[in-house]
Structures are given as structure tokens and as C-alpha cells.
Amino acid sequence: MLKMNQINQGSAFSLIDMLDDKSIQLIITSPPYWKLRDYGHDDQLGQEESFHEYLDKLLGLFEKCKKVLKDDGLLFVNLADTYYGSNNGKSYVSKKGEKQFLNKGSGKCYQSMQDTIKSKSLVGIPQRFMIAMIDRGWICRNEIIWKKNNVMPASVKDRFTIEHEYVFMFSKGKKYKFHQLKEKAKTKDKSSPRGSKGCQSLQSGNRLSMRTKGNEYTRNVRTVWEINQQPLSIAHYATFPEQLAQRMILCGSDEEDIVLDPFIGSGTVAKAAVKNNRNFIGFELVKKNIEIAKHRISEEL
């Protein structure tokens, strides 16, 4: 078993084998997206020649995750889609028909060619992933839309600007640890909204009345999460916000539970775990990212 509260450098595909079976309560991760960034590491995920290969690798990793996840544990996966065949890509097909890639390690975006998808089409990575996970026995409890109101303006003229990504919530079985989260809401109707005066069950067996204040009330958190991207003063491509990670941590774990992030990047999940008195285990290939993550985590210690 790897030590808790530390980031382990290496590939998630091999490091996860060092964890004990059913030792992790909650897994939260945002894997590298397919063909969006090249981090210049031979063992990186996301630079496979086909999205089929990318998905196969990702699904293989989550089969290992299923083994280390407790029976009542949850898995949250953040994924975004990509457009196929962008003209500003840096790939080409050689005369021999072999795919070649340029600018490795530059951090520039590029995509490969596949005849199965037409240029300018979304690949459908999140949807393909969700269906494949269900086919492999995972229970998909929620498809969450992460709505980012502070996305960069886009200059495209023939489609709308994308301001969302997907977060999938999976469980191993029908029963799992879950704490319902509440959010504030308002209604224009002066009467009480249906369910706004409902009761919340307590561990003691009693029920707590949910009182309204004027036209404000609390309700179960919905599946569209409006959370802005979190800019970092230290350069890093990923912009996984702490508020997003914290919401998953609070609903899927208790204090002292272990939270795993196989692609910890700049350490957002670990930082949120420490802030909320959880333990964490993280994997990361790139040494620079580990240094950034350690610095951010130290702010909570």
C-alpha cells in the first residue's frame, strides 16, 4: 500500500497496482483529454493515434480503479470533448500511410486523422466513455454538466462557444456512501415551492424541518454545476477548480477517508481533500506538476 498524503511520480497504470484492494473510498480525476495537449512524456495518456485506443486505455485503468475502490465508494470522472481534424493541428499522414506527429513536447494542440469521423465534428469522447463504462458494469448515477461562465471568447463563426464539460458519477453497486448536498434557490411564486418545506433525515433518526425565508429555499443540488474555472498564478494547462473537487469530496466521503486522484496534475483534488480533513493519494508523471501540487497542498497544512 502506498503512503497516504503524498504524490507518487509515475504512470497511473502501474502505480495503481501498488494499492490494496478496496482501500479507497472516493476517486476523483480529470484524465488528460485526447489530442488536446502534449505534455512531452513517453508514458502520457492522451496522445494515442486513435480515440479507440485512448478509450481502451482509460477503461483499462478504471477497471483497476474498481478493484481498489471500496464496495460503497464512488468514482467521479471529468472529461471534455474535442473537435476532429482541426486545421491548426500538427499531424499528417505520410506517403506510407503512417501517422506522424510534430512538435512533441511543445505543449501545442494537435489532432490525428481518422477516416471514421468527418472534419469539424465533435468526437463524442465523453458519451462513448460513459456508455463503455456502463457496459463494463459500472452504475452511472449522474451525468453532470460543469458550466464554466468564464471561458475564453472564441472567434469561431459557424458554431456556438462551448462553455461546459462533463462530470460522470459512477458507483460499483446500488448502495454507496453519499451525502446529499443542498443549494439555495429562489422562486418568484410567493407560495412555498413543492418540497421547499420538506424534512432532512438525521443520523439520529429524527427529521429536521427545512424552513424557507421569504421566497428563498434550499433544494437538492442539481446536475448543472455553475463553477468558474480557477486561474493559477503558476502556469499549468489544467484549470480544474477547487470548488468542483470540494463538492465531490463532501458528497462522497467522510473525514479521514482516502481520496485517490490518478492524474493529480496541479494538485487541486489533494488540496481540497486536505482542506476538508480527508486523506489523499495522487499519481503524476510530470515532475514540474508535482512541485506545483506540493506547493499548493502546503498552503492547507
Short précis:
Helices cover 21% and strands 24% of the residues.
Tell me about this structure.
An eight-stranded mixed beta sheet has the order 1-14-13-2-3-7-6-12, with helices on both faces. Strands 4-5 form a two-stranded antiparallel ribbon. It has 301 residues and is an alpha/beta fold. The chain is built from six helices and 14 strands.
Task: Compile the SSE list and pairings.
Blueprint: E1 6-9, H1 12-15, E2 24-29, H2 51-68, E3 69-79, E4 91-93, E5 99-101, H3 125-135, E6 139-147, E7 164-171, E8 182-186, E9 199-201, E10 207-209, E11 216-220, E12 224-226, H4 242-252, E13 258-261, H5 268-275, E14 279-284, H6 287-298
Parallel strand pairs: 1-14, 2-3, 2-13, 6-12, 13-14
Antiparallel strand pairs: 3-7, 4-5, 6-7, 8-11, 9-10
What coarse outline follows from CA principal-axis ratios?
A: globular
What's the CATH H-level homologous superfamily of the largest domain? Vaccinia Virus protein VP39
Named CATH architecture of the largest domain: 3-Layer(aba) Sandwich
**How many separate domains?**
2
Q: What is the percentage of strand-forming residues?
A: 15-25%
Mean pLDDT: 83
Number of strands: 14
Order the strands across the largest sheet as they lie in space: 1-14-13-2-3-7-6-12
SSE succession:
EHEHEEEHEEEEEEEHEHEH
Features:
301 residues; alpha/beta; 8-stranded mixed β-sheet; globular
